[in-house]
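Need a sequence for this fold. Nothing fancy.
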């Protein structure tokens, strides 16, 4: 947790003015080394009601570079803290990327090899129906017969 003192009474009154105008409290985080500037915002009224208790989550990529920030008002702690007017109570959390699940390729390859071995040894039967096995031969014959019957003489004379 970071306790940052206000820069004077004008800082607190500045937050009150933002609240009265229904504007936003903006936080800018500048990365060292020219990585850019990240911004997040919150409602100043909520921040004042929470006794200046906030949390800042900094999201990092797999290299450790900042990619995003989230500013949240910790309003659940407001009744415990009373009305703080001289210090920000900021919790900073660094959250890095997590690797997702990886496929189990070894088990898949083993399963494919076992299936291939069963096909080669003839253990696996073809359980398809007659039409499912030989449809590619039946359909052209049916089309050929339909075309011939349509082109034939109608009266037989």
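Here you go.
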């Amino acid at each position: 947790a970071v306790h940052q003192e206000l820069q004077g009474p004008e800082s607190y009154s500045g937050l009150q003015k933002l609240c009265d105008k229904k504007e936003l409290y903006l936080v800018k985080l500048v990365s060292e080394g020219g990585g850019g500037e990240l911004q997040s915002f919150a409602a100043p009224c909520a921040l004042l009601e929470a006794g200046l208790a906030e949390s800042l989550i900094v999201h990092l990529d797999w290299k450790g570079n900042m990619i995003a920030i989230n500013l949240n008002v910790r309003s659940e702690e407001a009744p415990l803290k009373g009305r703080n007017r001289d210090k920000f109570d900021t919790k900073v959390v660094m959250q890095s990327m997590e690797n997702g699940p990886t496929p189990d390729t070894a088990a898949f390859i083993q399963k494919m090899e076992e299936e291939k071995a069963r096909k080669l040894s003839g253990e696996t039967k073809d359980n398809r129906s007659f039409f499912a096995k030989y449809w590619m031969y039946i359909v052209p014959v049916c089309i050929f017969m339909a075309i011939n019957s349509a082109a034939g003489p109608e009266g037989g004379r």
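For context: Strands lie at 2-5, 25-30, 37-42, 53-60, 66-73, 87-96.
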